[in-house]
Automatic annotation (TrEMBL):
Domain of life assignment: Bacteria
InterPro entries, A to Z: HTH_LacI (IPR000843), LacI/GalR-like_sensor (IPR046335), Lambda_DNA-bd_dom_sf (IPR010982), Peripla_BP_I (IPR028082)
Protein's UniProt name: Catabolite control protein A
Gene Ontology molecular function terms on file: DNA-binding transcription factor activity; transcription cis-regulatory region binding
Source organism per UniProt: Filimonas zeae
Ranges where the HTH lacI-type domain occurs: 7-61
Length: 342
């Protein structure tokens, strides 16, 4: 099939018998062009199927009005809410976003970073993949002066602003709550301890045990990839522990619910035999039976703050490469899965 030729301002000028400069100004609603002429130009543009070439125009200005957003997954209500917050701010500032996701894979994250760099994004907002080994793939952005903002999963020592919650405090609060319910043998399901979020939640767990004079036992920490298969295996391991644990604190809600369901099928009562708590306040936490105690992760606020900082930098109002870390407040939500003391 023959490709239709792209209509240019020169084609419009020829059809209207006016100068290309007048057409250009008329399309941009320039005050020097009369209302009647603007209407003629815009009507002809619609009739001929003219599309403005924003890309070429932006390249001339060394700006694309596009923000890259790299996330580690898309099937998460937390990530969806972060994207919603980012989109709200960028749309108001007349920026588009390009979303890329790594599917928790370092190699794909590297490829996504390269792709967004070559698409000439004006800035990048990102959350690291589960198995990211180093951050060399962000060096081209730094060398070009393209601002970086990391959220949720961050590398604390790396340049660029970070937007996080206090994961250590949240882990401490969850574990303390379980201890207050009479639990003494608490299993912690951790994600990759290379990532700040999981390492800090483990630190909070350990701090709460220490504060309540309970010994830390390495065998009570199960580190896995938080997949369904891995969590079913974790449930089997919990069943084999002697003496049996009386609580599980999982570092995300999906892992908590998978393990809770697997144990329930083996006759374990929740919370009477084993109390449960998760993390993130995903939809699954409200739908599980019993409903899951969790930590509310303010995703929309996180997205808005990350995008607002980026817009402020792009507008010359701040330098985010000198900004350290923004910590936003999270909240423990207590539900039936952990309430042993009514």
């Amino acid at each position: 099939m023959q490709q239709t030729k792209e209509i240019t301002i020169y084609d419009l000028a020829k059809a209207l018998n006016i100068s290309p400069a007048t057409v250009s100004r008329g399309l941009k609603d320039h005050p020097a062009i009369s209302h009647a002429t603007k209407k003629r130009i815009q009507d002809m543009a619609r009739e001929m199927g003219y599309r403005s070439n924003n890309f070429a125009s932006n390249l001339r200005r060394q700006k694309t009005n596009t923000i890259g957003v790299m996330v580690h997954e898309l099937n998460s209500s937390f990530i969806t809410s972060v994207l919603s917050g980012i989109e709200k701010v960028t749309t108001a500032a007349d920026y588009d976003i390009i979303i890329a996701h790594s599917s928790e894979d370092y190699k794909k994250e590297v490829a996504n970073a390269s792709n967004l760099f070559h698409k000439r994004v004006d800035g990048l907002i990102t959350s690291l993949a589960y198995n990211t080994e180093n951050l060399d793939h962000f060096e081209p952005f730094i060398q070009k002066g393209i601002p970086l903002i990391f959220f949720d999963r961050v590398e604390p020592q790396y340049p660029g602003a970070k937007v996080v919650i206090d994961n250590m405090k949240a882990g401490y609060d969850v574990t303390s709550h379980l201890i207050q319910q009479g639990c003494k043998r608490i299993v912690h399901i951790a994600g990759s301890l290379k990532r700040n979020v999981y390492a800090d939640r483990l630190k909070g767990y350990r701090k709460a045990l220490e504060k309540n004079k309970l010994a830390f036992d390495e065998s009570m920490v199960i580190e896995n990839d938080l997949s369904e298969v891995a969590c079913v295996e974790a449930a089997k391991k919990i069943l084999q522990m002697k003496p049996r644990p009386d609580a599980v604190f999982a570092c995300n809600d999906f892992a908590a619910v998978v393990i809770m369901q697997a144990l329930t099928e083996q006759g374990i009562r929740v919370p009477q035999d084993i109390a449960f708590a998760g993390f993130n306040n995903d939809t699954i936490a409200r739908l599980s039976i019993p409903k899951l105690t969790t930590v509310n992760y303010p995703g929309i606020q996180m997205g808005e703050i990350a995008a607002s900082h980026l817009m402020s930098h792009l507008n010359g109002e701040s330098n985010i490469m000198q900004t350290s870390t923004v910590i936003i407040k999270s909240e423990l939500i207590i539900r039936d899965s952990s309430l042993r003391k009514k």
